[in-house]
Amino acid sequence: MASSMSLKLACIAVLCLVVGAPQAQGAITCGQVVSDLTPCIAYIRSNGAGGSVPAPCCNGIRSLNNAARTTPDRQSACTCIKGLTAGISGINFGLTNKLPGMCGVNIPYKFSTTLDCKSVK
Known about the structure:
Blueprint: H1 2-17, H2 30-37, H3 41-45, H4 55-67, H5 71-85, H6 93-102
Helix pairs in contact: 1-2, 1-5, 2-4
């Protein structure tokens, strides 16, 4: 059950950062997005209980940000995140949208279930 919750949380994080469109244009895979964001799931699901963002979460956010350098990569990551988070209830998008900044990463858009990934540049 813990791995199922982790997978769901990773999906939510992926949706917030960058729903099922093909990833042909971007080099980033959904597997990479999930791997990078899985460490953030428990923090998001607990609404930030425990205080600071876990280091593995920030490391994953930075890794994903560094990998998503082109517009197609960012759009692919967005699509992955959106698809993953669509099946997870109770996501705190307010907290989710604060995570990059809390980890020293600037992302110029806010994630939501209605974000048009084609608008991500």
